[in-house]
Automatic annotation (TrEMBL):
SUPFAM superfamilies: CheY-like (SSF52172), EAL domain-like (SSF141868). This is cyclic-guanylate-specific phosphodiesterase. GO terms for biological process: phosphorelay signal transduction system. Keywords: c-di-GMP, DNA-binding, Phosphoprotein, Transcription, Transcription regulation, Two-component regulatory system. Residues 160-413 form the EAL domain. Its EC number is 3.1.4.52. One of its GO terms (molecular function) is DNA binding. It comes from Pseudomonas extremaustralis. Residues 7-123 form the Response regulatory domain. Gene3D superfamilies: 3.40.50.2300, EAL domain. Signal peptide: none annotated. CDD domains: EAL, REC_D1_PleD-like.
Amino acid sequence: MASQPATLLIVDDEPQIRKLLETLLQHEGYQTMSAGSGEEALDLIAQRLPDLILLDIMMPGMDGYEVASQLKGDETTASIPIIMLSALSESSARINGLQTGAEEFISKPVERIELWLRVRNLLRLKTHGDQLKDHSLMLEQQLRGQNNETAHMHVHDLTRQDLENALRQAVERQALTLHYQPKVELASGRICALEALLRWDRPGYGAVSPAVFVPILESLGLIVTVGRWVIDSVCQQIATWQRTAIGAVEVSVNVSGHQLIEGDLIADIASALATFGVAPHCLEVELTEGSLMENTQHTIASLQRLRAMGVKISIDDFGTGYSSLAYLRRFPIDTLKIDIAFIREVTSNPQDAAITRTIIELAHSLNLRVVAEGVETQAQLAFLKEAGCDQIQGYLFSRPLPVATLERLLLER
Ligand code: C2E
Ligand code: MG
Ligand code: MG
């Protein structure tokens, strides 16, 4: 079994990178094939299944995310391990890559030793997974007395299915919770608002990131129900605080594009505000730039109705969604939140600094409020103050907190 060298497929639009990777990997004794685009890669894979794929994310035409989603969604190719390659250092690129089902992620420029170790380890796991798969097929066949066609259980499918089942159960048992992260007004240095963030403590596993489970809730068709619960809980919480020494607080909730398109976001919000007696200006909805770009006519109409009710609207993760400024002008918005990716290196990367300054100026010239998220250091804070940013959110001031801890902080303000 191990005598045949493994075949690795390299997919990258840059010829020098393909050449470099081929040289490195051949040197380690692997066979290589290469493709200059996502489309070409899929053609090659249809002819011959590689043992592992090194896949660039940013390519013209079909990008790496799309290629990985297609491969992982197809039973014949789902178990081929994928290592994604990217020059993007932000964690969202990694998370998006991992979400599509890719097993590993390597940053460019590629380190020879890291490449070799990751390839070796993944190939080992794959061999083990194939054996497990064969074993589970055999067992299943023995149990059912059936042949090959009925039993198709990939190890990969099992873990994904487990995750989905556990999440379904968490929703049924109302085991999801909310944490709140303070936003601080730079002019006064005081907490001016909060963002509600979903939390899931998966029994036996610990905390699972909402960046992972929210897309699964979307694909399971559960996000509308969960989203409605988030809105209700937040409104109830605002009402409770109003009656105590904490007083009125503005809270933003993250809203998925699915809630606008499949659900009735307006009705959900109107009913929560009425039920708990909350003033609309205390609530803000955060929509990502990406979700605004889908089904725009309907989205604009819904946002206009929300705005007319007095609810505030914020664009989350701004700067990464490729929306044009002409487009932006058509949305009724109050706030732009600069994506964490630009803030991370704002003090060391002149391009990120320039983008951040530009977004702040743009927001102000459109009379919008601008919030920077992911602020972790004093140096980032100083930069943002100097650049005229209105509010910040980040670990420097506070992590997202459970209600009891947050209340102590709010009472001190
Ligand atoms: P987001 O709305 O952009 O939320 C900001 C994320 O940045 C949060 O991650 C927050 O914990 C994290 N963060 C805050 N300050 C810092 C910092 O200083 N450094 C770093 N590295 N990270 C910081 P979290 O809670 O894991 O949420 C991830 C995403 O999941 C959110 O991104 C949002 O898109 C989604 N999400 C969370 N709750 C909900 C929800 O109730 N509904 C929907 N539809 N999506 C949600
Ligand atoms: Mg947000
Ligand atoms: Mg964000």
